[in-house]
Automatic annotation (TrEMBL):
It comes from Pendulispora rubella. This is MFS transporter. PANTHER family: BYPASS OF STOP CODON PROTEIN 6. Keywords: Membrane, Transmembrane, Transmembrane helix, Transport. It comes from the Bacteria. Belongs to the major facilitator superfamily. The chain crosses the membrane at residues 18-38, 50-71, 100-119, 166-187, 208-230, 242-261, 273-293, 299-325, 337-355, 361-380.
Length: 394
């Protein structure tokens, strides 16, 4: 895996995608924070409330299967459509109209996110070429930075007895308005090769599935923590709802810190493949501290270290997927969205089912098992053939 070189040009389209990721980050983090509240409001079991993330993930899967064609159909309206679907889904989730409305809202939110995670990497690949992983990392860093606000705002609202509904939808709605009003600038680089050859039905390159599986593993970890940490703190540590929700900000703060520092890290580490293994190891240790030690300082350290370790896993693994199929960026991005959908649809649901069958503490063990599996894969890949990692950041 080669070292990243060159300067990243952040034009208007790149800045607007970053801003859209800010809206997405708040809603995504907020979605995880409101799951315990939805469970209590609707009288659901953990496996039942996990169906909301599964409905959300279904949107990712649907777009992942046909995302390249959908993006061509949406054209310049792709980002507006993504933001509109996210906000519409959030409004339905907060409407209080019952389980069905909430499920439809989660699905709509997932569709909006899926369009964004298809559109953004492909656009970055078109605009920035081999520097696309840096743009992906910075965009996800913006999402992580804004996601810190969601548990803080929601936690403060819950602690004040104001509920979660307005705190969930009002901030992203206000932030999204300027992005919806103004159209997205046209791509200023080469046309994507796949749009020039619409009749071609390309096959994924050799080794693509394993790179795709990496995305499944790391997204499973990120969303299992995001969706279940607050519930674990309430049930396992006996924290009040507002306090538990606010403390999850430590996890997303760790992710934001790591992703904001991504450019510096990836330029200075000679073999960014080592970043994946080191990050996975840090996340595993941090999660062990959070899960095992019932002490405020350990919870703070563990959540932040887990977030810091997780931070670069998604940008780097998605960058590998994009780089492995450079002639078809939209198709590669669609398959990346499909990987995220599979992870979000399955891992939190499996965790919830284990929690209902045994207890939440046992269910939370699923996350470090996934981390260890990914860490072993990183180590084996480095030992077997370091050259296999060349695509992660190239």
């Amino acid at each position: 895996m080669s070292k990243i070189e060159g300067a990243l040009s952040r034009g208007e389209s790149t800045r607007r995608i970053y801003a859209a990721h800010g809206v997405l980050g708040y809603l995504l983090s907020g979605f995880g924070m409101i799951l315990p509240e939805l469970r209590q409001d609707l009288g659901l079991g953990r496996a039942e409330v996990a169906l909301y993330p599964s409905a959300f993930a279904l949107g990712l899967v649907l777009v992942g299967l046909c995302g390249d064609g959908l993006l061509r159909a949406l054209g310049a309206q792709a980002m507006r459509s993504a933001i509109g679907a996210q906000i519409g889904g959030a409004l339905l989730l907060a409407s209080g109209f019952g389980r069905l409305a909430g499920g439809v809202g989660a699905l709509l939110f997932g569709l909006g996110l899926a369009i964004m995670v298809n559109f953004a990497p492909a656009r970055f690949r078109e605009d920035h070429g081999d520097l696309a992983p840096l743009a992906i990392a910075e965009a996800t860093g913006m999402a992580s930075a804004s996601s810190v606000l969601a548990p803080l705002v929601l936690g403060a609202s819950l602690s004040a007895g104001k509920g979660w509904h307005m705190a969930f939808v009002a901030p992203p709605l206000v932030a999204a308005l300027p992005l919806v009003v103004r159209a997205m600038p046209a791509a200023h680089t080469r046309e994507a090769p796949e749009t020039r050859r619409p009749r071609e039905a390309p096959r994924a390159p050799s080794g693509f599935f394993l790179l795709w599986l990496d995305v499944v593993l790391v997204v499973s970890v990120e969303f299992s923590v995001l969706f279940w940490a607050a519930d674990f703190l309430q049930v396992g540590r006996q924290l009040a709802s507002g306090t538990a929700t606010s403390m999850v900000a430590l996890f997303v703060s760790g992710m934001a810190t790591g992703r904001i520092a991504s450019t510096l890290v990836l330029r200075r580490v000679p073999r960014p493949g080592h970043v994946l293994a080191g990050s996975a190891a840090m996340a595993t240790v941090g999660y062990a501290i959070f899960w095992q030690i019932d002490h405020t300082a350990a919870t703070v350290l563990g959540l932040f270290a887990t977030g810091l370790g997780v931070a670069l896993l998604y940008p780097l693994t998605l960058g590998a997927v994009m780089a492995s199929w450079p002639d078809h960026p939209h198709r590669a991005a669609a398959r990346g969205a499909l990987a995220s959908g599979c992870a979000i649809g399955l891992a939190p649901l499996c965790l919830g089912m284990i929690a209902d069958a045994v207890d939440l503490r046992a269910g939370m063990l699923l996350t470090p098992l996934i981390l260890v599996a990914f860490l072993i894969r990183c180590i084996v890949r480095e030992v077997k053939s370091p050259a296999l990692n060349r695509g992660v950041c190239s």
